[in-house]
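One thing: can you check what follows?
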Amino acid sequence: QVQLVESGGGLVQAGGSSRLSCAASGRTFSSYAMGWFRQAPGKEREFVGAINRNGGTTYSADSAKGRCTISRDNAKNTVYLQMNSLKPEDTAVYYCAARVSEQLYRFYFYQSEYSYWGQGTQVTVSS
């Protein structure tokens, strides 16, 4: 089992940047594929991006492509979401998620594919 704790959220001006971190407990972090999701007020939680076990493969949602970068440091048990050129519509609670992946290069898009979730961190983008 793994516990996830997000950090790095806060208030950001439009056009600014934010870097979210997700720290995982346990000693087998490299066994987990990771994902980032977000939930805006009044909306369903949606996929932002994902990264495979060793960080060699990432995928971002269309809304995030060109503005968001996902990375991980397995030595620090941490996955990151770097967001640039933030817009007010990026305001949401951001969640990281994890699941064991037997396939090294696989990443996952759907919430139902993930077993573990963090509590979320709020990002508010002011116009």
